[in-house]
Amino acid sequence: MDKMGEASPVIPVYEPTLGREELENVVEAVKSSWISSKGKFIPEFEDAFAEYCGVKYGVTCSNGTAALHLALAALGIRKGDEVLVPTLTFVATANVVVYTGAKPVFVDSDHEYWCIDPERIREAVNKRVKAMIPVHLYGHPCDMGAVMKVAEDNGLFVVEDAAEAHGGEYKGWKVGGIGDVGCFSFYGNKILTTGEGGMCVTDNEELADKMRILRDHGMNPHKKYWHDIIGFNYRMTNIHAAIGVAQLKKIDTIIEKKRRIAEWYRKELREMEGLTQHPEMPWAKNVYWMYSILVEKDFSMGRDELIRKLRERGVDTRPFFHPIHELPMYRTGDRFPISEELASKGVNLPSSANLSQEDVSNIAEKLRHL
Ligand SMILES: *Cc1c(COP(=O)(O)O)cnc(C)c1O
Fold it and tell me: Is it the case that residue 9 has pLDDT exceeding 80?
């Protein structure tokens, strides 16, 4: 029993996949005494992950939120600017816009694949809008072809929030490597983890240099303690990068496993009335960060009751994010009907890469007999 008096869930919604390799790298980092933000694992992780994303430069940082903030700051986003963000995302996507002094402008989702709707982006553009942050939600890529077209037509920067979609692909292109900057999180429940951590990837050398300076107090790289601009301390430690290097070697296996888990869920839940399954558009490779379902009106109970009953039966799940425009600090009175509907119906099922086929069968069995 936990402190809320509920039975502790047997199957958690997410667990990291850690092994001997992560441990060995951490031991090596500690033994080397390079435990702060210099050391060999940092450039190794940056180069290898950038290459994985199909771009030239990687800039590690302390978390995914810092990555997004660094990207916007390096692009020169500031007070008076507006940045388009989906309303259906984790709150950090909007918060980072406010950190720069700019204003987030919310955009509704596509009803079929849940990410930002490129048509709604086009409608939201005005002359104060300088950038947009498409989010590859729950592992499904945005329609990046359409997103990039709107950006080009209107001269907007594109910062991809790929915190939930390491290895996801749009028409064979890795997400994060398509826009001006791609931002990743390596939090404990993300597809790849370093405990806490983040990275910006880009093909633009000037932007990469700027992000490196901004993450290190704005210090001039050629002159110690000379600061040309106000920066931040957003550095990653060598210990975290050591874990990242080991994790990255497993990414293909992790993603293969996650796609197999999605297939198991899809087969198990196929016959169930009233559940819509996690989509995968023909142009997309979904990495299913969280295998998700929508609880439709014709299901035998509401979404919240389903979550409660599954928890009673030892299965931990999560409801979808609340659309950000409904949170107190962002409430404007504007409505975004598709995001609101998705948010009210969505559930993330347990999605760790270490789930077995038997685990998935058990979860499905419990869903069938709530
Ligand atoms: C996790 C996440 C972030 C923030 O990452 P942190 O490492 O927790 O700061 C940003 N955007 C999205 C969509 C996320 O899921």
Answer: no
For residue 160 and ligand 1, the question of a CB distance below 6 A is answered with no
Looking at residues 327-339, what average pLDDT do you find?
A: 96
Place of tokens 């990039």: 148
Query: Contacts from 210-217 at CB under 8 Å and sequence distance 24+?
Result: 210/74, 211/59, 211/61, 211/70, 211/71, 211/73, 211/74, 211/181, 212/59, 214/70, 214/73, 214/74, 215/59, 215/61, 215/66, 215/70
Q: Is residue 198 within 6 Å of ligand 1 at its C-beta?
A: yes
pLDDT at 6: 52
Q: What is the pTM of this model?
A: 0.96
Are 275 and 296 within 8 A, CB to CB? yes
Q: Note whether 234 and 214 are within 8 A (CB).
A: yes
pLDDT surpassing 60 at residue 231: yes
Q: Which atom of ligand 1 is nearest to the CA of 135?
A: 13
Ligand 1 pocket residue status of 93, Cβ below 6 Å: yes
CA of 95 to the centre of ligand 1 (A): 11
Report how far ligand 1's centroid is from the alpha carbon of 162 (Å).
Answer: 9
Q: 367: helix, coil or strand?
A: helix
Expressed in angstroms and rounded, the spacing between residue 138 Cα and the centre of ligand 1 is 11
Task: Give the pair of three-digit tokens for residue 288.
Answer: 């299913």
CA 14–ligand 1 middle distance (angstroms): 15
Q: Could you tell me which residues come within 8 angstroms of residue 256 by beta carbon, excluding any fewer than 6 positions away?
A: none
pLDDT value of residue 1? 43
Q: Percentage of residues in the chain with pLDDT exceeding 70? A: 98
Question: For 253-280, how does the pLDDT look when each residue is reduced to its tens digit (9 = 90+)?
Answer: 999 999 999 999 999 999 999 999 999 9
CB 143 near ligand 1, within 6 Å: no
Question: Does ligand 1 come within 6 angstroms of the Cβ of 65?
Answer: yes
